[in-house]
Amino acid sequence: METINFEIVSSNSSVEWTGRKVTGAHNGTIGIKNGNFIFNDGKIKGGNVVIDTTSIKILDVTDPATNTQFAGHLASDDFFSIEKFPTATLDILSVKEISGTTYHLEGNLTIKDITHLVGFEAQVNNDNNTLSLGGKLIIDRTKYDIKFRSGNFFKDLGDTLIYNDFELDFNITAEAVFTGESKN
C-alpha cells in the first residue's frame, strides 16, 4: 500500500466564485493559500485546502472605484469578515469513487469559524506525480452567518435580494512530495 502526499501548487490552482442576485450575478476569484491531498493505492483518500479570503477579487465590476467599494463590502462583517477570518478551510473526511476519475468528496467547510459538512463531485487525475482536481462546490452562505440581503432573514428586498447559494468552481494542481522533500 503506497501512500503519497500531494501538496497544492497555489500558483497553478484557481478558484472562481459566482454569486447571484435577482438582477444578475457577480463573479471573481479567490486564492488558495496551501493544502494537500492524500493518495493511497492510486486513489484519493483525504486532504485539506486552505483558502486565502484576503485574496478575493471581483472580475465583473470594471469601474475601479465601484470595484474597490464592492471588495471592501465583501471583506466586511456583512460577508467574509476577512480581518477576523483571513482563511477558510475544507477538510476532506470521506471519499467515494463514482468512476475511475470521478469522486464524491465530503468534508468540513469552515468559513468565519463556522463549520458545516459539504459534499461535491470532483474529477481527479494523477499523471506523473502531478495531481489535478476540478469540480464545483455550491455553498449556502447563510449557514456561515453571511445573511446580507438574504430572503431568509430580510423581507421586502425586491430586486436587491441576493440568493443564498454561491458557487466555487475549482481547478487545483498538486505535486507529489516524497520523504525528505518539501515543496513550498
TrEMBL record:
Residues 5-175 form the Lipid/polyisoprenoid-binding YceI-like domain. Pfam families: YceI. SMART domains: YceI. It comes from the Bacteria. InterPro entries: Lipid/polyisoprenoid-bd_YceI, TTHA0802/YceI-like_sf. This is YceI family protein.
